[in-house]
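Q: How would the structure tokens look for this protein?
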Amino acid sequence: MDEVQHMTDLLPSRPAPPVHRGTGDLAPSTHEVAALNSELLLMSGDTAARRPGKGRLLLVDDSPFIQELIARLFHRRGFEVQVAGCGPSALELVETWTPHVVLLDVMMPEMDGYEVSRRLRQRRELSGVPVLFLTGLSERIDLVRAFAAGGSDFVNKEESPGHLARRVELCMNVHRVKVEDRAE
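A: Here is the predicted structure in token form.
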């Protein structure tokens, strides 16, 4: 618990992005705390990364801790971030707000991330939007299921936040090139 408190001390006092809440687990792993703590310290003086306009990111995760930290990480990198605490809330949110990329947890109550991804892919306007699975799962079958459900990438929660941010930006850039190629 001391590690969690230390992490929250590093967060700016600015209010967090709105969260469409589900039920969640408040206990992050020690590795998540250490990795996010390191990333936030590195970012604290990085004003170039705070430029607005990088894109719209939908984060779907049932952990309020992960919601707040990942939302702040991407907000500081210039993303407009919306957060949903469960699959049904995410599906409701995309009725009125179209993301450029979706960061999706696998293990959630009510509806798992695989089903959320399948339902997003059924919507014409979201069918090409990159969906990155962010999960603590690491078995080969989990990777196969993520791609079968329409995932664009699969990132383990034990990766550093900087690595996660680079993967999100890479998927968005690939998607942007595909859209530009279709327009020509």
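Helices lie at 2-10, 30-43, 64-76, 87-93, 113-122, 140-148, 161-183.

The first strand starts at residue 19 and ends at 20.

Upvote if useful.
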